[in-house]
Amino acid sequence: MTEGKPSPAGRQRPLPVFHCPYCGDEDLTPYEEGWRCGACLRAFSVRLIATGVQE
Ligand SMILES: [Zn+2]
Q1: pTM of structure
Q2: CA dist 14 to 7, 8, 10, 39, Å?
Q3: 8 Å CB contact between 32 and 42
Q4: How far is Cα 31 from Cα 26, in angstroms, rounded to an integer?
Q5: How confident is the model over 14-47, as pLDDT tens digits?
Q6: How far away, in angstroms, is 55 Cα from ligand 1 center?
Q7: Of all helices (H) and strands (E), which one includes residue 46?
Q8: According to DSSP H, which parts of 1-55 are helical?
Q9: Centroid of ligand 1 to alpha carbon of 2 (angstroms)
Q10: Potential cystine with 39: which of 3, 25, 31, 33 (Cβ 3.0-4.6 Å)?
Q11: Residue 31's pLDDT is what?
Q12: What pLDDT sits at residue 5?
């Protein structure tokens, strides 16, 4: 993790960095219900299976 990077004051929060689970590239673009990797051209979806809140 790199800290100390000045976040631009403004209108949008920085997006979390996602990595392609297949090749590790960060060139991901939204694709239908998930993401598409620009490096290996795989498309995949990210599914939330828990929120961390215990009942
Ligand atoms: Zn990839």
Answers
A1: 0.58
A2: 8, 9, 10, 22
A3: no
A4: 14
A5: 766 789 999 999 999 999 989 999 999 999 998 8
A6: 36
A7: none
A8: none
A9: 23
A10: 25
A11: 92
A12: 61
